[in-house]
Amino acid sequence: MENLYFPAVSIITVNYNGVRFLAGLFDSLSRLDYPAEKIEIIMVDNNSSDDSCEFVSRKYPNVKIIRSDKNKGYAGGNNAGFRIARGEYIALINNDCTVEKQWLSGLVKTLLQQGATLKAGAAGSKVLFFYSYLLLEFNTGGMPLLVNDFIINNGEKCGKLGVCGPQENLCRSIRFISKCSPASRSSDGTVTSWTLNDGAVIAVPIADENNDIALTMEISNSADIAGELAVSLGEKERKARIFSGQAQPEVSKIRLEIQKKYFDYKVDLVNSCGIEINRSFYARDRGADAVDAGQYNTADEIFAPSGSSLLISRRMLDETGFFESSFFTYYEDVDLFWRARLKGWKVFFCPESVARHHHCGTGVEWSPLFTYHVLKNRMITIFRCGWCGIFTRSYFAFIASAALAAAGCLRQAFHSKRCSRPDIPVRLRIIFEFFYLMPKNLISRIRIRSTKRIPDSEIKKFMTVF
To answer: Is residue 239 predicted with pLDDT exceeding 80?
Structure first.
């Protein structure tokens, strides 16, 4: 770095049955352009049943391993790492990530530069999806298209779409970018089929740049007659048609052959460039699923960094405290950085720091467990950190939406129709749990709100519309 000051950094990753990802992570950490003697690497293992600990002990003896006797989740696992970390700064990286050479030096440089004049507490990376992608546009002649059972090359048939998958099940890494909507879900809440409207765009991962891609899928249209279907590869003025045919009312199978000569059309997709919030304090990843075209190449101040890749000042943790361990996973980053902001700490985005993320590599997005933790932890975060009005409005809006959804399902059941809303029991459970969760978190709320150093108007500045 320009000032040649390299503070000691502890890098923490939390692992649960993620052995298939660990070589990629630790190999990439070994290639950082940061002095190795200034780096401490800690892996917190959440009682994995695979051979993660044995693998790391054997292949990466420099990694300190903390073995938990139970799965403490993201929050509890990182808190265990915080307690033994010796660094002036602490980096967190998901176990299903790999990092680029300047990942750490970029984060440290950002905090040192911003900290010269501001109370800089954390910096977040540009997190891209692990694979590069090819964009496919479906022109359906105005008729919606139902698609499912994707297969890439000779991999497994994909029953859960838009999640993430290792190389042997690449179809799970397909991204549904625009004009796509879930058509059906499995009993655990994951999407099993999609509706593609005219002009829909999906992104297909490239795992092997030396071989062509064959994408097979089952399709049907919503009309009583066959409709024209054209599939183009690329974006804007740079497109190549790779399929022309018909979509029948009956289910049929099509195969798209993508030759490797088209791989120079590939793009990187953003997973997260930080966390943004709306007026109801729902959080989302900034830039998610956007093509990385340089639009996120400025070191902006952000509300919070993505929990998948960030650097935190030890001084900030000492003042703010650790993650709320009762959260297990999801919204713990929003909670921590809301608390930090109330104490005057600032958070920045660092575009020079790049990580690649499989995303839900050891979890299932929108499974009942995922839904439970996201919705419950959002409400607890608002109760602990927020002003009275936002919690009251959010809680009663949550009750109303759950009641309307339950009533809709009852109407469908009355007409002998199947209701595919596995989230409704989860929402009802959260409503009743809050009768004891609010008293349980009341002391935390009093402490957080009574010690805040900035007005809530400073938090409201980060609220956007989505």
So the answer is: yes
